[in-house]
Amino acid sequence: MIGNYLSTSRRRNNVVLATKYRSAVGVGVNDIGASRYHIVRAVEDSLRRLQTDRIDLLYCHSWDDETPIEETLRAVDDLIHQGKVVYAGASNFPTWILAKGLWTSDVRNLYRFEAIQSVFNILQPGLGREMIPFAAEHGVAVVPYSPLASGMLTGQHGNSGKAKDGSKFGARDDAKGGGLKSRYFNKAAFDATAELISISEKHEQPVIRLALQWISEFTGVTSPIFGARKVEHVKGVLEAWADLAPIEVMNEVRTLAGEFEAQAPMSYPPESGQAMGTLPISTSSK
Fold first, then answer.
1. 154 & 286 share domain
2. Where in the chain does DSSP place strands (E)?
3. Using CA atoms, how far apart are residues 98 and 142, in angstroms rounded to an integer?
4. Does residue 137 belong to any structural domain of this protein?
5. Does residue 206 come out as left (phi exceeding 0), alpha (psi in the -120 to 50 range) or beta?
């Protein structure tokens, strides 16, 4: 769909096109990972599907403890020299792996990771402890995803522990093992969400604005990614992001976020092949 749009609209040069490699795309032994073999195949397949001659930003979806980081970087470096990739990025990396990658690029004269994409929101604050300061120090762009905690921070699920029909926490999450519910459906998260909504209503500020602004105030954060399944979702975010909340309102949000992190710290970084850490607290909604 994206390839068809870019081809027919002739707007390719107005788009920063990003995609990833690493996750399983088949059952074969080489259909997964960050090896040279898999990366080259993944990029060629993406170029064909996207109907383009280049990928602007190529992410390694999660770190691969079975492949040397130099092999991964050298493969991407070759693709950059070939003009098939413009920039390299990492996703869901622990800080020490990103540091190892930057060091390897430096001593081997390879193109380096220029961006780090990982989950980051008020209910999953682990990225802010170590990775964001490190990335800012070394000029790596931080591209956080799930700033609204998959919609949890909008309060649509209440505190019942039951997913709203048609949401990401519903049948789709169940089919994937219930990862979202196990991550967010707990008393601490429900209470924090309720307090955020209370701040939003008291000051007549959209809750989406508060959640996005909290993330964007961290040094080095460049472009938070929000997901949208409907046009009204996009309009809602754009309307909320058309202005900024006053500093006194954000002081309350920061206090809330700090209190939540103190009582329910996120287990970060994720393990090899994982996208997120987990909250080491009860998943009960009671």
1. yes
2. 18-21, 55-60, 85-91, 113-117, 141-142
3. 12
4. no
5. beta
128 assigned to some structural domain: no
Pairing of strands 113-117, 141-142: parallel
- Closest to 33 in 3D by CA, of 57, 68, 58: 68
113 shares its domain with 185: no
Q: What is the pLDDT of residues 168-219, one digit of tens each?
A: 888 888 888 888 888 888 889 999 999 999 999 999 999 999 999 999 999 9
- Residues ≥6 apart with Cβ < 8 Å to 195: 256
pLDDT digits (tens, 9 = 90+) for 232-283: 889 989 999 999 999 999 999 999 999 998 886 555 666 676 665 544 443 4
116: Cβ contacts below 8 Å, ≥ 6 apart: 89, 90, 91, 93, 98, 131, 135, 140, 141, 142, 143
Give the domain range for residue 274: 148-217+232-286
The total number of structural domains in the chain stands at 2
Give the whole-angstrom CA distance, residue 67 versus residue 237: 39
Residue 132 inside a domain? The answer is no
Q: What is the pLDDT of residues 20-51, one digit of tens each?
A: 999 999 999 999 999 999 999 999 999 999 99
Nearest to 182 by CA among 276, 61, 93, 88: 276
